[in-house]
């Protein structure tokens, strides 16, 4: 991949991510927050189920349990996000959510001797 294509992809992701807060704010004017979350999750589930149907059929109970737990955590995150967008401006919500772009590299710069083992915590739920 050349630099121009990489920059174009980064720009399109930034545009989609940034506009999602505005679109959520517009959507919250016509439907309730939990219906908006259900719509987003439903569309995502349907798309992923169609794309990964063979893998979806081969799920084990362990993977399904871990996926359910991660889904619950993601739902709680989105519920907080939609609640925040509903009670503040879209630009403020976008700014606060975008601080993770700055915080992740800062936290990653902590020397390894001060970090816990890389598989501790919630990350271990995604592992088999």
Automatic annotation (TrEMBL):
Keywords recorded for this protein, A-Z:
Cell membrane, Membrane, Transmembrane, Transmembrane helix
Domain EamA stretches: 5-109
Per the record, membrane topology reads: Multi-pass membrane protein
Q: Which InterPro entries match?
A: Diverse_Substrate_Transporter, EamA_dom
Record GO cellular component, one term: plasma membrane
- Report the family membership: Belongs to the EamA transporter family.
Q: What is this protein called?
A: EamA domain-containing protein
Origin organism of this chain? Anaerosporomusa subterranea
């Amino acid at each position: 991949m050349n630099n121009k294509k990489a920059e174009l992809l980064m720009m399109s992701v930034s545009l989609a991510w940034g506009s999602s807060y505005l679109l959520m704010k517009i959507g919250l004017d016509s439907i309730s927050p939990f219906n908006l979350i259900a719509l987003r999750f439903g569309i995502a589930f349907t798309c992923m189920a169609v794309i990964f149907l063979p893998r979806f059929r081969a799920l084990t109970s362990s993977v399904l349990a871990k996926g359910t737990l991660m889904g619950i955590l993601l739902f709680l995150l989105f519920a907080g996000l939609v609640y925040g967008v509903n009670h503040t401006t879209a630009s403020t919500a976008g700014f606060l959510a975008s601080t993770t772009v700055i915080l992740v590299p800062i936290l990653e710069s902590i020397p390894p001797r001060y970090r816990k083992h890389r598989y501790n915590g919630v990350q271990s739920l995604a592992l088999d």
